[in-house]
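We were asked to recover a plausible sequence for a given structure. The inputs and outputs are reproduced exactly as logged, with field labels preserved.

PROBLEM: sequence recovery
POSITIONS: 271
GIVEN STRUCTURE:
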């Protein structure tokens, strides 16, 4: 005798998007979904920039601390395989000094994140991103190979920004995109390799500080597919785009995300 198994109607299924994101309004959920998709698009297109898009927007609805834990879980399953594929083309002589000082500065950034109030962190985050975009878009370039002190300094700044808001790629983008000798393929390989390694390091520190929570993991579950779709679309767009389009598209998306996230607009937008 075959036993018939009945399923509840779709509208009464126990799991929905709100089940993974309890306490968030539909508008806040839409912001997270849009930020994830746009961030994945930029990340796939340029090799960096997910956090520069996602963090300012996610911080509006979650606060910087919760957003930092969420972004780590979202990016982890993608950052490690991408880094493994990029490692063969990366310049390890440049990556290792950066990674060393980034690791040392990371706990200081996490301390600042938990010490500063939410509004102050939102201002700092948005203004740092806007300043970085302005510098990159200005066309500034430096010549020759980067010196060891410069690499160590950029690595320290990257670790500080990574601990504060998971935007450790921002100083690296200025550093590598500003190198006239680097083409976009080498830039992507360097950044993707660095991100994979720094993800493992930052995960240890964030877990120790209690920022990687079960709630953040649950919230990340429905965002994995959206982020993956953005990465796929961005990667295919990168293969078709020119060098000029590659840079301008990334700058525009990052700039608009940071501009929209400024606390200046909270009253006007009812946030």
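RECOVERED SEQUENCE:
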């Amino acid at each position: 005798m075959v036993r018939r198994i009945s399923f509840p109607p779709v509208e009464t299924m126990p799991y929905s998007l709100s089940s993974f994101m309890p306490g968030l309004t539909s508008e806040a959920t839409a912001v997270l979904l849009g930020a994830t998709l746009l961030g994945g698009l930029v990340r796939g297109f340029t090799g960096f920039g997910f956090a520069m898009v996602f963090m300012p927007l996610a911080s509006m609805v979650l606060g910087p601390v919760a957003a930092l834990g969420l972004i780590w879980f979202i990016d982890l399953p993608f950052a490690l395989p991408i880094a493994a594929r990029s490692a063969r083309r990366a310049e390890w002589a440049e990556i290792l000094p950066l990674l060393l000082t980034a690791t040392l500065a990371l706990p200081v950034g996490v301390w600042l994140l938990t010490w500063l109030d939410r509004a102050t962190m939102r201002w700092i985050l948005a203004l740092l991103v806007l300043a970085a975009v302005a510098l990159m878009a200005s066309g500034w370039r430096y010549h020759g190979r980067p010196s060891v002190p410069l690499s160590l300094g950029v690595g320290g700044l990257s670790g500080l920004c990574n601990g504060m808001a998971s935007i450790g790629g921002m100083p690296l983008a200025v550093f590598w995109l500003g190198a006239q000798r680097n083409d976009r393929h080498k830039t992507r390989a360097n950044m993707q390799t660095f991100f994979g390694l720094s993800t493992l390091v930052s995960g240890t520190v964030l877990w120790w500080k209690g920022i990687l929570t079960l709630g953040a993991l649950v919230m990340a579950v429905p965002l994995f597919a959206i982020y993956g779709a953005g990465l796929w679309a961005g990667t295919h767009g990168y293969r078709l785009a020119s060098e000029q389009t590659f840079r301008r598209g990334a700058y525009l998306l990052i700039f608009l995300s940071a501009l929209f996230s400024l606390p200046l607009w909270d009253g006007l937008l009812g946030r």
